[in-house]
Write a structure and sequence with these properties.
Elements: H1 3-39, H2 44-77
Helix pairs in contact: 1-2
């Protein structure tokens, strides 16, 4: 097994599902924040909780999107062909 195959297996079988799961969690937190913000708009505490969830949802989404960029940079740094990772979309 070459290093490219080993890294490919790690990316495809571990990192990609993990990033996808975390992306879904961030989206759920974001949408839950919207529901809280709108649903409890008559109280200050409810709006603050909704805002906090909105912000953390956006932060989570940005982190998950940047992970794909980091993986792309690492692949380029180590000279690994990106064609080995068709599911990354990079």
């Amino acid at each position: 097994m070459t290093i490219e195959q080993f890294l490919g297996n790690i990316v495809i079988h571990i990192l990609q599902p993990l990033v996808g799961l975390m992306f879904v969690v961030a989206l759920v937190i974001f949408f839950w924040g919207i529901v809280q913000f709108i649903g409890t708009s008559n109280t200050d505490e409810g709006r603050e909780t909704g805002k906090r969830n909105l912000v953390w949802g956006i932060v989570g989404i940005l982190i998950m999107v940047s992970v794909y960029g980091i993986i792309s940079i690492l692949l380029g740094t180590f000279g690994i062909s990106k064609s080995l990772f068709p599911y990354l979309g990079i």
